[in-house]
Amino acid sequence: MKRQQERAEYRSIIADSWNRCIGYGLHHDYEPEPANLDDRARETLEKDYEALLSTTETEVLPYYNNIMSNSRCLILLADSHAQVLKGWGDKRITESHLRPWFSAGASWHERYAGTNAIGTSIATRSPVQVQRNEHFLKLNRSIISSAAPIFDTDRTLVGVLSAFSDAYLPQAHTLGMVRLLSQSVENRLIVRQLGGNHFILTLNTTADNIDSPWSGLIAFDPNGRIVASNQRADQLLGEPLSGRNLNSLFIENRNLILNHSHNTPIQLTTTKRVRLSGLLKRPVSLDTVTTKPARAIPRARPTEPGMAGVSMDDIEHGDPLVRRCADQARKVLERGVPILICGETGVGKEVMVKALHGTSQRCAQPLVSVNCAAIPPELVESELFGYEAGAFTGARAQGSLGLIRKADKGILFLDEIGEMPLAAQSRLLRVLQEREVTPVGSTERIPVDLLLVSATNRPLADRIDNGEFRADLYYRINGLSLELPALRDRMDRRELIRRIYLEHRDSGQSDTLNNEVMAALENHPWPGNIRQLVNIVRVAVAIADGDDVQLWHLPEDFLADYESQTRPERKPVFDASPYRESPQANDNSRNDTMDQTLVVYRQCMGNVSRAARELAVSRNTLYKRLRDLGVR
Q: Pairing between strand 367-371 and 411-415?
C-alpha cells in the first residue's frame, strides 16, 4: 500500500511538471540553445557562488573520485535558478549535442529544458529522479537525471546537486547518493556558517550511526535557542526546529546537554517520546562561557541497545512468559540461531537484546543496533553495507565500514526489519547466506562473523502476502520467534513499576510510591507499553522536584485517561453481572462462568485489569481462570 502511494505521488510529480511545460508553450520536439558564457562571465558566476562551490567540492569530489569514478556519470551543481555552476565527471555519457548543457551557464529550468531533475527539483523543492521517457523534451531522453535541493541555514534554496547518467546504466543508488551528497553539503554549510559561535548537536537513532552524513544537525546558542537545523533533524524531532528551545524538545534539562562531554554520545528523549543519540560540539569562541550547573540527579540506567548496564534480571520481575522468552533466547543465540522478537512498540524488545548481549559469550564484542524504519529507503543499503574507502570527508573520510561490518564478531540487531526496502532485503539475504559483505562501489567480498537478532511490531506474514517482505528472508531470520507481552498483560507489572521508579527517582524522594499513584500506574492500559511508563515516571519525578511523587505530578493527559476509567458513573463495556463471582456459585455453573470469562477477556481486547474490573474479580483470580482455559 505504501509503495503504491509512493508511485502515485511520483507519477503526480511528473504529470504536474509536464503540465507546467505545456503552460510555458513547450512542445516535445523543441530544441533550445544552451547559454555559452565567456571566461569573464564564468569567473563572475563562480565568485558569486564561491561558498557553495567550495563547500560542494569539499563534499563531492572525494566521493566521486573514489566511488563513481568507474561509472559513466556526471555530477552538476546548479544555482537556485537552475543555472549550471560547475560539473565533475564524464561528459561522454550521452550524445555530443547534449554536452554544452553540462557547462557553466546552461539553464535547466523547466521553462527552457522541460521536465528534468534539476528544474523539477527546484519547482517541487524535493529530490527527484527523471527517467528517460519522463523528460518532456525528446532532446533529453537519452539520459536519466537525479537531483536533490540544497538549503542554507535559513532554509532558503541555494542550489541543486544532480547526477546524470546514460539511460541504459543501472540506477539503483543514484537518487539516494545525490540526496546523501546534498545533505552533506547542507551540513557543511551549517557548520561553516554557525559552528564558530554556536553549539552543534548531531542526532541519529542510535550511537552506531551517529557519524552518518544522514544524521540530524542542530545549531543553537548558549541559551538553548535553535538558530538552524537540517531537514533530517526536523524529521527526527517531528517538527520545524528553528526558533525553538532545547527545553521544549527534550526531556533532559538544557544544562545537562550543554555540560555533556563533547566526545561521548549522549542519550536523549524527545518530548514526543522518541529516543535519540547525540554528539555535542562546542564552539571555540564559547569555551570560556559557563552555564549554570544542573542539580545533581542520579542518572537512570541506560536502556539504549549497545549501552552498558542491562542484565536478564532487569527485564523480568516475576512474569513467566518473559522469563521463558529470555531463557529460550539465551540458549539458541549461543548456537548461532537467528532470533526474531515480536511485540508491540515499547514492550522492551531492544532491552531484551541488550540483556542477551550482556550474558552472551560475545559480550566484549560490539552490539550494533539498526532501526530499519529510521533510515531513508534509498540509503538503507549504503548504511548497512558501507561505502568504498574515501567516500566522505571528516569522520567518514576513509569510507564507511557499514553497520553490518561494525557488528563483526558481535551481534547485529535489526529493529523494525519489516520496514526494510525489498532491494536491501535481497542483499541482506545474500549476506546471511554467504557471511560476506560487498560495500557499495566495490567488488571485494569481506567475510563477517555475527549473530543476528531482528525485531518487528507488525506481523511479517501480512507484509509477505502484500509483496513487501521476502518469504525466504523471513525464514532465514526466524530461527526462534519470541513474542514479548504488552505491559498491560504482564503479571509482574507492579514490581516493574517499582523498579523503574527506583531507577529514576531523586535521591531525596521516598523509595516507594503511595497507593494512589501506584494504583493509577498499575491500572493504566499503557498503549505505549514500558517506553510510555518510563517517560511518565520521569516526568512525574521531574515535576515533583525532590518531593514525594503525588497523583497530580503525573502528566495531564495521563490523569485524564485515569479519571475517565475510575469515574463512578462509567458504565461497563457490557453487563457482566451474571458472570461475577458469587458465594452461591456451584459446580454446574462453573463452565458457564469460564466461558463468559473468556468472552469478557476478549471484549476487553486482552486488557487483564479492565476485564477483572468488569467481572468484579481480582487480577490473580482472572489469571488463574485464563491459565485454566489455556489462554495464558
A: parallel
DSSP calls for 19-52? HHHHHTT--TT--PPPP---HHHHHHHHHHTHHH
Report residue 17 as a C-alpha cell.
511538471
Beta bridge partners of 88: 75
Backbone dihedral region of 486: left (phi > 0), alpha (psi from -120 to 50 degrees) or beta? beta
Per the DSSP assignment, residues forming a β-bridge with 74 are 89, 164
pTM: 0.55
Name every residue whose Cβ is closer than 8 Å to that of residue 613 and which is 6 or more positions away in sequence.
572
Q: How far apart are the first and last CA of the chain?
A: 34
Per-residue pLDDT of 38-61, as tens digits, reads: 778 888 888 888 888 988 887 666
Taking only Cα atoms into account, the Rg of the chain, rounded to an integer number of angstroms, comes to 29
Taking CB atoms within 8 Å and a gap of at least 24, the contacts of 68-74 are 68/177, 68/441, 70/441, 71/165, 71/169, 72/165, 72/166, 72/169, 73/163, 73/164, 73/165, 73/169, 73/174, 74/102, 74/163, 74/164, 74/165
* 184 φ/ψ sector (left φ>0, alpha ψ -120 to 50, else beta): alpha
Lowest mean pLDDT among 332-341, 486-495, 524-533: 524-533
Across the strands, what pairs with 201? 218, 280
Length of the chain: 632
Q: Give the span between the Cα atoms of 393 and 399, in whole angstroms.
A: 8
Per-residue pLDDT tens digits for 545-600? 888 998 888 887 777 666 665 554 444 444 444 434 444 444 455 566 666 777 77
At residue 619, what is the residue type?
A: R
CB atoms within 10 A of CB 374: 20
